[in-house]
Amino acid sequence: MTAALLHHLAPAALPLQRLRHWWQRSTLARQRRAELRALQALGQHELNDLGVGHSELPGLGRRG
Fold first, then answer.
1. If you compute the radius of gyration of the chain from its CA atoms, what whole number of angstroms results?
2. Disulfide: which of 2, 22, 32, 52 matches 64 by Cβ 3.0-4.6 Å?
């Protein structure tokens, strides 16, 4: 009986799973944008210490 109940509830859970998946992706995207902004705020000396140039920053954001 439990398996039958879960089978019927599975379609009802799909919107919640989609919402959770969307939320996780948007959270990752926000984190990546914040990291890119932090890198862009660094001065050239700090970037040199990290081995990254200003011209490479846009590529870092796209690779994420």
1. 21
2. 32
